[in-house]
Specification:
It is a single chain. The chain has about 375 residues and is an alpha/beta fold. It has a single domain, classed as Glycoside hydrolase, family 3, N-terminal domain (TIM Barrel, Alpha-Beta Barrel). The protein is about 40% helix and about 10% strand. The protein has helices at about 1-20, 30-40, 55-65, 90-100, 130-140, 140-160, 190-205, 245-250, 280-285, 300-305, 310-320, 340-350, 355-370; strands spanning about 40-45, 70, 105-110, 110-115, 115-120, 160-165, 210-215, 230, 255-260, 260-265, 295, 325. The strands form three sheets. Strands 1-2-3-6-7-9-11-12 form an eight-stranded parallel β-barrel, surrounded by four helices. Strands 4-5 form a two-stranded antiparallel sheet. The longest helix has 18 residues, at about 1-20. The chain is globular. About 50% of the residues are buried. Residues about 1-20 have low confidence and may be disordered.
Length: about 375
């Protein structure tokens, strides 16, 4: 007499298990309109010097409505070249093809700072470049104008519309692994940084190129590299590092502000700036009155990927005030599903009540305002 009861219990248990939400699967109650808005919040890297209808990046653009792509000349996971860039002719064709698949204007982004951070290399047929440190040491408006215009003109000719530059970190520690060591900062003097960054941005705007200043709240004093792991600037950072951000924001210069994956435990004892409401909604949007697009540095860098799961990183960064997240696919491994996993994560977080649709609407509005100028 007990066997039917046992069978019923087993069947009931299996039914409950089958009905549990898989965090990787989006729920049907989220509208397609909201999913399209979420897609705009991600920029991804991909492999290929040309694309085809079967390319995964084409599916990301057409099906997920992603906000943009980021281009590289070197593929770090495979330690090989080329990744996306071979020559001016090839690159301009690739960018043009990417844009034809997008219903919403597509951000075509690149890190073209000059010098060591130079995706469009002279050896590929592009114009030469110089480092920001060189420009800061010369500190001559005409010289900076020349090199900034050369960079912006090249990007315009290629169809690239977003440069993750200029770096406005202060060169407080010349040996700073990701900044000073590679001569990416104009100067330790805030005035020199502000003056040269202003020229850089103006020359890009003259060519219709958007600029993202970086790395908020300042990475130039650090002794470690956030590409590799946790970076704590509690003992090295000072408020002077905010001056370039404050001045440029007050002048309405930056189109985007990029966050750094750095800890300052005096400001937020728990999370790095990218995941911190104290840094983004509090300091950047509150104290500095910045109302534009906030973009997180690559979410696959060691400081984020090795310390937080995707769901935690996405939840914390979006709730902190980040509008666009970058998944470069250019560190230790390549994930062709990075964009879809991001979208699925946000959908699940909304369903769980951990991110609101209103918060997504805020970012979407800022992104669409930004894109109205490209």
């Amino acid at each position: 007499m007990r066997r039917p009861t046992l069978i019923i219990l087993i069947l009931a248990y299996l039914f409950i298990i089958g009905c549990e939400q898989n965090p990787s699967d989006p729920d049907d109650t989220i509208s397609q309109e909201t999913i399209d808005k979420i897609g705009q919040m991600v920029i991804v890297g991909f492999r290929g010097t040309e694309i085809f209808d079967t390319s995964s990046i084409v599916a990301d653009i057409e099906s997920l409505n992603i906000g943009g792509v980021v281009l590289y000349e070197y593929d770090s996971p495979s330690h090989s070249r080329p990744r996306n860039i071979e020559s001016p002719t090839q690159l301009s064709a690739l960018v043009s093809d990417l844009k034809t698949h997008a219903d919403t204007p597509l951000l075509i982004a690149i890190d073209q700072e000059g010098g060591f951070v130079d995706r469009l290399k002279e050896s590929y047929g592009f114009p030469p470049t110089v480092t920001a440190q060189h420009l800061g040491e010369v500190d001559d408006p005409e010289t900076t104008t020349y090199w900034a215009n050369s960079c912006a003109t090249t990007l315009e000719e290629m169809g690239i519309n977003l440069n993750f530059a200029p770096v406005v970190d202060l060169n407080i520690n010349p040996d700073c692994p990701p900044i000073g060591h590679y001569e990416r900062s104009f100067s330790a003097n805030p005035s020199v940084v502000i003056d040269n960054a202003t020229i850089w941005i103006d020359q890009h705007h003259n060519r219709g190129i958007l600029c993202a200043i970086k790395h908020f709240p300042g990475h130039g004093s650090s002794t470690e590299d956030s590409h590799l792991g946790i970076v704590d600037i509690t003992e090295t950072w000072s408020e002077i590092e905010l001056e370039p951000f404050d001045s440029l924001i007050s002048a309405g210069k930056p189109d985007l502000v990029m966050t750094a994956h750095v800890f300052n435990r005096d400001i937020d004892p728990d999370y790095p700036a990218t995941l911190s409401g104290e840094f983004i909604d509090g300091m950047l949007r509150g104290d500095l009155s910045y109302n534009g697009v906030v973009i997180a540095d690559d979410m696959q860098m060691g400081a984020i990927q090795s310390e937080y799961g995707l769901y935690t990183a996405v939840e914390k960064s979006i709730n902190a005030g980040v509008d666009i997240l970058i998944f470069s696919n250019n560190y230790t491994e390549y994930n062709p599903n990075a964009a879809s996993e991001f979208v699925d994560a946000v959908v699940w977080l909304i369903e769980e009540g951990r991110i609101t649709e209103e918060r997504i609407d805020e970012s979407y509005s800022r992104i669409m305002t930004l894109k109205s100028s490209i």
